[in-house]
Amino acid sequence: MDEMVLTEKPSVLMVDDDLGLLDMAGEVLKGDYAVSFAASGPEALELIRGGFIPAIILLDINMPGMDGFEMLARLREIPQTREVPVVYLTGLTAEEYEERGLSIGAQDYIKKPFSRKILLARLKNCMENTLRLKGKNTLDEEKLSRLAEPLTETELKTLRLMIKGYSNEEIANELYYSKDYVKKLVSRILGKLGITHRGKVMEFLK
């Protein structure tokens, strides 16, 4: 496994049990990214729990012990990697796998064998989209301060997680509240913002 070095390049963690593929993709990416490797899901999780948080994760699906779907679920349970973009790079070409991967939160799905230009273009797009979303998913504190009925600190914490796309259950887990309490908080926040449902939150903050 490559040792991490100080660099201005965005860091990519590749997780795949095909060592030949890791070497080949690493050669493609090393000009634009600081590349690290893990040969399995558990190895990648150990690296992350040791403090390495990559800018993006390239993940195979068909791996022994822990497949890529379970790996993504584990990543979303870790606060530090909850918002790290994950791109599947896999030999599973059936549409059902692609649909499942995207539906559970992967940012993209690239099929092997991959084109060098396509891989680089897809990763660049993924990184740019993530940066744009981070820029959008911020609170307009000045706008919120002008509300007739101000938000409490608890409501602001909840709103910040709503903006990041957290479900009520995820908010409850993150803030250690009951799901019923979170449901009431969300309803109260929407009422104060004067909007009818969660999908309008980002429009309000524009």
**Shape by Cα distribution:** elongated
Number of strands: 5
What strand order characterises the main sheet?
2-1-3-4-5
**Low-confidence stretches at least 5 residues in length (pLDDT < 50)?**
1-7
Share of β-strand residues = 5-15%
CA(first)-CA(last) distance: 44 Å
Structural class: alpha/beta
Q: Which sequence of SSEs, written as H and E, runs from N to C?
A: EHEHEHEHEHHHHHH
Overall pLDDT, averaged? 86
Question: What does the main sheet amount to?
Answer: 5 strands, parallel
Helix content: 40-55%
The number of helical segments is 10
Radius of gyration: 19 Å
Explain how this protein is built.
- This protein has helices at 19-29, 41-49, 68-77, 95-103, 116-136, 141-145, 153-163, 168-175, 179-193, 201-205; strands at 11-15, 34-38, 56-59, 86-90, 108-111.
- It starts with 10 loop residues before the first strand and ends with a helix.
- With 206 residues, the chain is an alpha/beta fold.
- Strands 2-1-3-4-5 form a 5-stranded parallel beta sheet, with helices on both faces.
- The chain contains 10 helices and 5 strands, in the order E-H-E-H-E-H-E-H-E-H-H-H-H-H-H.
- Helix 7 (153-163) packs across helix 9 (179-193) and helix 8 (168-175) packs across helix 9.
